[in-house]
Each structure stands twice: as structure tokens, then as C-alpha cells.
Amino acid sequence: MADKQDKPKRVQQVYTLLVEVGRRSGDGLPEGATGAALMCYASGVDEAEAVRETVAILKQADLAPLDVTGYGTLDERLAEGHDIDEEERALMGRALEENSVIVAQMTPFFEDAKGGGDTVH
């Protein structure tokens, strides 16, 4: 009888993602905002899955994702020297436990009054 080799089970991890969103009708962003940056913690078997799930959920919430930057898992961020406080770790734990996307912070962008680029307020 031949030995069956079991495929390793793909383990869910939490990825830190920074998502830039533009404007869309009904998006809930403050009046005058040109978009926003969202810090998210998303679970997935890999970063690509976490990004796909995050973009899908943000679109369902009437947001318009434009760009996603991945910062890796908790272990990857610690290896890079990131300082991660207990509140952030708790949100990551919640995302993993609930197999969900947690939007931890939203920073709206506003057009500079001088006609320049976006400024954060």
C-alpha cells in the first residue's frame, strides 16, 4: 500500500494592509474629502487572499479601493522592527478569530486650498 502524503493545511494568518480609497456616492467619507487611507487587518491563507477579501468588503461598503499596500503578518512586521502595541495585536487577534477584515483606522484626505496635492486633516 502506497503512503499518502497529506498536503499541509493552509493556515489563516492576519495581514496588515493600507488601502487608499477614492470617492464614491454613499461612501460615508467626510464632506470635502477627496479620499482616505484605511489601515486594515485581514485574515487569509496568504496576502493575496487577504487583499481580495478586503477589496471585496470595502466595495460592498460603497468605498472605492484604488491601491493596497501590504505590510505582512505580525511575525514579518516584528522581524522588520515594527513596534506593535497591545491594542493593535488585539485587533489582529480579532480578525483571525472572526476570519474577517477589521478597519482599524481611517484617515481622510482633503484637497489643499492652494490647489496642491491632498493633505491629511
Q: In a nutshell, what does this entry contain?
A:
By secondary structure, the protein is of the alpha+beta class. The chain has helices at residues 47-60, 74-79, 86-98; strands at residues 13-22, 33-44, 64-73, 101-111, 118-120. The N and C termini lie far apart (67 Å).
Description:
The protein is an alpha+beta fold. Helices cover 27% and strands 38% of the residues. Strands 3-1-2-4-5 form a 5-stranded antiparallel sheet. The radius of gyration is 18 Å and the shape is globular. It starts with 12 loop residues before the first strand and ends with a strand. The relative contact order is 0.23.
Write the layout of secondary structure elements.
Elements: E1 13-22, E2 33-44, H1 47-60, E3 64-73, H2 74-79, H3 86-98, E4 101-111, E5 118-120
Antiparallel strand pairs: 1-2, 1-3, 2-4, 4-5
How much strand? 35-45%
The helix/strand series, from N terminus to C terminus, equals EEHEHHEE
Structural class: alpha+beta
Number of DSSP strand runs? 5
Overall geometry: globular
Output the radius of gyration: 18 Å
Ends distance: 67 Å
Biggest beta sheet summary? 5 strands, antiparallel
Given as residue ranges, the uncertain stretches (5+ residues, pLDDT < 50) are none
Primary descriptors:
121 residues; 5-stranded antiparallel sheet; 5 strands; 27% helix
